[in-house]
Specification:
This protein has 253 residues and is of the alpha/beta class. The chain is built from 12 helices and 11 strands.
Length: 253
Amino acid sequence: MDQNALKRLLKRLQKGEIGIDDALEALSRLPYEGIDNILFDHHREVRKGLPEIVYGPGKDREQLLELAKRFTQKGMPFLVTRLDVDKAEFLIKKFSSLRYDAISRCLSYLPEESEGKDLRNGVLIVTAGTADLPVAREARVCLKISGVSCEILSDVGVAGIHRMFDHLDTLRKAKVIIAVAGMEGALPSVIAGIVRAPVIAVPTSTGYGSNLGGIAPLLAMLNSCAPGIGVVNIDNGVGAALLAASIMNTFRD
């Protein structure tokens, strides 16, 4: 249950549309609810200002269908990551309000009242190459349902570093930068050396043999000498987005 849903419940109680027992029943499901042996955190938005995120692999259609039913009924934003297209299409046929991004394999839901709201802005996602876009798009979808808008600056890695320098004004205006890179993972170090904003480095598994599935850029980012860098796990666009959203929450009035 997010803050909007909680307000709606209390207003219905205040107007006499529901009774105390009905309100207690709804509140009894806080802060979590069990669905087919899976415990979903309904209190995260109230507690953290962040939506519920579900890891798609390992969930069957019926579990995902029940999840979508519960969350859409409650008007709560949620995200399912790494979801196969066939399962996504199955769910969208049942719930037209769901959105699927095929590049990132993310299925998301935003209540209608949230769709029209102005999002907090100031996050910039920068990718070294276009092969890093699935991770960048995962971060973007996650940011949107967290109430944060972002811009993606793609294919400006160190192999053609002059391309990034054409966007210095954009880089320096950002409040938070998510830098996504595979291969040798040098991009976050370059960016962190020229901007004031915190840089969230995301190593990706993009690269040839000695990339070691993302281990090489992960170690490079952890060993960066540029100040102001935080590093998340390999291909972890969600982790980067949630950290960026948490930072952006501090800019709220």
